[in-house]
Amino acid sequence: MTNIFKGQLIAAGRNAKTAKSDAASNYATAIMYMAPADLAGGKTVCAFADKAGCKEGCLNLSGQGVFTNVQQARIRKTRLYLNNREAFLSALWTDLEKFVAWCDKRGKKPAVRLNGTSDIPYERIERDGNTVFAAFPQIRFYDYTKVYSRVSHALPLNYSLVLSYSEAHPEFAQKVLCAADNHGANIAAVYRDKAAQARAIECGDARFGNRRIVDGDQTDLRFLDPAGAVVALYAKGKARADRSGFVLDIA
Questions:
Q1: Average pLDDT over residues 204-232
Q2: For residue range 97-126, what is the model confidence (pLDDT) as tens digits?
Q3: Fewest beta carbons within 10 Å, which of 55, 139, 212, 241?
Q4: What is the pTM assigned to this prediction?
Q5: Distance between CA 25 and CA 108 in Å, rounded?
Q6: CA neighbor of 142 nearest in space, from 242, 14, 21
Q7: How far apart are CA 96 and CA 99, in angstroms?
């Protein structure tokens, strides 16, 4: 029985990190990867990409993202979302129905990240009067977001958001910290390398006060993290050379 699921928009079993966390849990994780920011042309799908300085270090070109056919597929999905929303949502609904059935056959609980390389507020998008979260209550959805205002509203019970931190702009960094404190959200922070990540986990990071720092690379299932935590990740791909402030160093 194959461990890979491939739909029109989402896929499972192809990401090394989610495959690792899925193997150690009773979840199976599917992710939707789109062309980030304004890469597909037209309106951006990552509203705060410039303020967060994450364009250059984006994971879009990591792993299979280096291949031209993968980039073309991500652009097609993004343009479908931008130009034909109903067709996009219809394809997403179909994928999720199939993924739930795929998980059932394997005795797994379905988990889905809709924003693998995008930052779309799906809690505000409806199809036939329902958000995707209401239509699929059996799925555990989760995402990272740089749009800090998203956590100021009540989110669906089956949707978790982690705020993505960056020091590219001091005002942005402060607003992320304030939103996390005011609304009880966790924070994700990308460190320069494994050594910096380990130092932050062991010794803390003054940026985040007394918040507990956990290793975000052990699992991708962010909804299992302790409340009030900082999820420490280490930079991968082009992000290792990032100097915008998106990737953090420890003094």
A1: 95
A2: 999 999 999 999 999 999 999 999 999 999
A3: 241
A4: 0.93
A5: 9
A6: 21
A7: 5
